[in-house]
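protien #1 (seq + structre)
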Amino acid sequence: MGLQDLEQRQLTRAELLVAKETAEAANRAKSEFLASLSHEIRTPMNGILGLTDVILDSELNADQRECLNLVKASAESLLVIVNDVLDLSKIEAGKLVLQMREFWLRDLLNRVIKRLAVSANEKHLDLICNIPPEIPEVVLGDSARLRQVLVNLVGNAVQFTNAGEVVLSVETSPDRAGTLHFSVRDTGSGIPAEMRGMIFDAFTQGNGSTTRKFRGTGLGLTIASRLVEMMGGRIWVESDGHAGSTFHFTARLETPVSV
């Protein structure tokens, strides 16, 4: 290799390094901007929801109450989207930190089931929670982020299951002490093979027809995947594409020494 070729290779390597650093800086700036923008949107949205509740508590005729309920439902839907954008932006910017505290695991799982029971009952689905006796009562972790992952997975299962059941289960991991294995099984239509490889990628719900036919595969599952990674675990899905799906994830939730 001649001196000129060596210099050209070094120059190319330097240019690639600069381009990589520029792209990473741009991505961080984008994430920080979205995080700031989402926060600024969320504040007035909470104000709209609060004032709507105040007006709903006053005397209204049937048409006025119906219109306000539609306003509230729309605002709540928009707030979910804003919160997802904020969470993803904070994760990508490295600003989301887990809050490690002791909490009662069974209570958290039961609250998840109760929160989604109304939606399941409306579709005549059995919503089941399996917690074997060997699961510890108290664990150490971020209860809010664990609940966020579980609500997303169980909520998706309820939304995309028209008959049968949705089962949330938890078990200890035999090969990793302090790690729990969660699963959410449904009897829905299943997920086709071509979707399983991208289901946890951000913004894959851009294909609207696929999303409407199967399950939401946008920010919710992406955030769940990132949160599971932060909790020292992994997430995956099993489905034959025809008769139901099972979402699995593991999370490091150790038993406190004081327990």
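ok now protien #2
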Amino acid sequence: MQRRAVVTGAGGGLGSAFCRGLATRGWDVVGVDVQGTARTLDVTDPDACRALARDVQPSLWINNAGVLGAGSAADQPDAEIARVVNVNLLGVVYGSRAAVEVMRPRGAGQILNVGSLASWLPVPGEAVYCATKHGVRAFSLALAVELHGSGIDISVLCPDGIATPMLRDKQDDAGAAMSFTGPRLLEADAVAARGIAMIEGRELIASFPAFRGVMVKLVGLSPRIGQAILRRLEAQGRRTQAKLRERGVRVGVDAPR
């Protein structure tokens, strides 16, 4: 039987990379998004998620859809906060529940949830985004415990900043500076490959790259000390944004820095 996979947020960036990577490994991939894909899905609609799962009957579901929504949490519009929470967190919850509904009777299946390194520490300028990714990590780990013995494996991938349109649209936004603090933005294909390796190895959780995962976990251990470090990193990220502007580089369009 051919393996079937659903990938949300497949209209571009990391979602497209997941679709390509899975297809080369023989998966029958159904990539969905609100636009830009043959089949559409609003991940904030639980009924639509269930209908898709019942129709496709996937053995793998990747909750990849996400939005950044950078800016001061005290000043962001209510509608923007609701959008970030609904897509990033509730979208993962709804997608996972829909997948479990069709996988549990078969006693087999896999779910990969895309989190972020932001799930390990507080991120100034991305507080709401950060909260949703903390939620994705917590939800995924708790769901894995709930489903123990069901035959359904849960994985959560926490990558650093990726050179995709999501960051291209934020590279001039000072509020998103923390997304530009890594040595270089990651290639979407490399992140997708790490996620697929997790699926094949049935790994529960992984940060990518691993050394950045260790660093952010250490910073997150002491919030007081971490505040000073994070402010320095934020300033570094703003300098990187300025350099990209000076060089005329557009993230997700030109070669990554």
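Confidence is low (pLDDT under 50) at residues 252-257.
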